[in-house]
Amino acid sequence: MKKRTYLFIVGLILSCGTAIAINLSQSKESPKTMPGSRKISTEVKKNSKIASSQEKKGIAGVDYPTSDGFKLDTHSKILSRTDSGIVVEHGNHSHFIFYKDLQGTAFAYLIPAGASLNKPPSLEMKSSDFGAGHHYVFDPKDIVAEDANGYTVRHDDHFHYILKSSLGLAPATPNRPIHHQTFHRDTHYVPQNRGISGLDYATSDGFKFDGTGIVGRTKDSILVNHNGHLHPISFEDLRKSGWAAVADKFENKADKKEHNTVDKKEDDFQLKLDYLAKALNLPSTAIERIETEDGRIGFKYPHHDHSHVLMLEDIEIGKSIPDPHELEHARELEKHKIGMQTLKKMGFDDDVILDIVRTHQAETPFPSNETNPELMKKWLATVSKLDLGSRQNPLKRFGLALLPNLETLGIGFTPIDDMKPVLQFKKLKRLLMTATGVQNYDFLQYMPQLEAIDISQNQISDLSFLKPYKNLNLIAAADNNIKSLEPLAELPNLKFLVLSNNAIQDLKPLQGLEKLQEIHIENNKISDLSSLAGKKDLKVLNLSENSNVDLSTLNLPNLETLTVNNTGLKHLTFLGKNLSLSELTATKNQIENLAGIELAKKLHFLDVQGNKISSLKIPGKQESLKFINVSDNKLQNLEGINDYQSLETLRAASNDINTLNLSEPNQQVNSLDVSHNHIPKEELTLNEKGIPVGVAQHFKAVTEGSIEGNKPVNEAPKLAEKSVDDKEDSKEVTD
């Protein structure tokens, strides 16, 4: 039996809100999501009236919540980057976002220069062991991409990133990546008796039966529609959960139903059953035949903590098994078929038609059944947002003149040789043109109303051409060759700056910009922060990868979110001058202790993974922290944990912890990760409730966590660079 690992991917909680007003409803061939260190929220998005008028369309996790409720927002946090995308935290697990899905969005600047913009084709869904809630159970059949450290896997309508190290496969490099909190079945100590998935609590894709939506039955189940796909519920489970009347009604109906005669459809069923079983690597006996009330035949197969249903007509021999959620997206397009045909007759090409349907924002939904070109023109005149990014010659496409009221336009990630056509959009306020190769910005003189511009990855070294545009409130100019911010001193309305990966040394030009709310200036040459002192509106600051930055010069009374990864930081005393901080991320630094954290009265999130911390003890009491990640440090025990009087979640994986013993039991922590340490077996033996005795004795409130990978010191594996052959072997999950 193949190794199954329960993964709860834990990390940071990203907060950005670079309000460019452009959360383009990206959804061409693949999900449009936002990575980078922070999500850019949008003024348009804040207009709930506009947002609520849209049908659910676009990309799960960006344009609408995924099946487990994840949607990037101003409180999302990035965990790590891979070759093809980013990993973002969601509760006690994570979601993966492809760089490709950022093209044409306000977050395009977050795509690293030269990054792969390819997205692997979706693989078929694979049944495996049943997890709990949103907890993903690794299965190699779910893999859609791989890099040196881990796998990107599909889970329902979204993706996760799984470290090879969490599966017992060493990464290809000796660097330790973000840790994944992990459960094996034999060390899983979450209390049981949760009830029945889909009846007593929602399944991992959000389904919970409420007595409605029944569309058919099998010999032992009813079939319930959930967002375009079917969930089967057995008559036995219905009776256990108080739905006996439903079970009685449909079971009796099933008994009276006469079997269909064997005909060509039966032969087709058997062929497709065998094909489906082989594709999903399941025995055919694990797949159940179902039949709807209208006589349609389908297949029910297990998927995580629930089942999926595919109808006979959904499967084609010789082609990949479709994802039920992707089928729903295809059916969604089918709903718009008539309106799309009208656009085609008007002269729009297929690319632009798809972009209009999937990425538009307008006062009313796309007129799916409109056949009158004149009425369609009236609707097009109400469209305020559109993404044509990655399309060849986007500004030369037919029909753009019928969109006179565009306020937000994405044209990035494709070469553009003539910007003049953009001038036809007289109301344009936000222009996204990442990686277009544009060097001449004279066209901007005809766009005085412009409020936001993304010119990232365009080999720009001088921002002087922006000085005349006093209405600008957002500038994204990441991954360029910028050294001076002097031109920005003349732009009094600036609120959001994205200047990552340049060569900037001096922040003095920002001294007089009183409206600044967010600054992202990672990987530059910043040292002195005194020019930012006293800015009352500045809430978010990212200074990561500035190796000489002096945080003692940071004095921001209202700063809420600070990221200072890999800056050489040695202590936390600067917190005393930044008393509004609620989230601090300071990984891969030189911090040896947490003294100073007691000064932060509003701090609720702290990530100091990958430092040199040897003790949790602090000079006083810390009363606000809810979450601490001290993984990959030098802790030998958890003494001092009681100084954190509101702490709920502690991540202390990959330290040198050799005991869970505390001088006094902890009463607050309810989630504890002490995996990959040196805790002895006698402390990890499970009690009658399935909780390790050491945890139960010293952490009274803990109900979940991880104890995986604990070995005596003399058995701890040494990190070593693997050979080429080893790297190849590590890609396989063995039995």
UniProtKB/TrEMBL annotation:
Location of region: Disordered: 28-48, 705-735
Domain of life of the organism encoding this protein: Bacteria
Keyword Transcription regulation applies: no
Key words, A-Z: Leucine-rich repeat, Lipoprotein, Repeat, Signal
SUPFAM superfamilies: L domain-like, PhtA domain-like
Gene3D superfamilies named among the record's database cross-references: 3.10.50.90, Ribonuclease Inhibitor
Signal peptide start-end: 1-21
Bias (Basic and acidic residues) ranges: 718-735
Entry protein name: Lipoprotein
Organism encoding this protein: Streptococcus pseudoporcinus
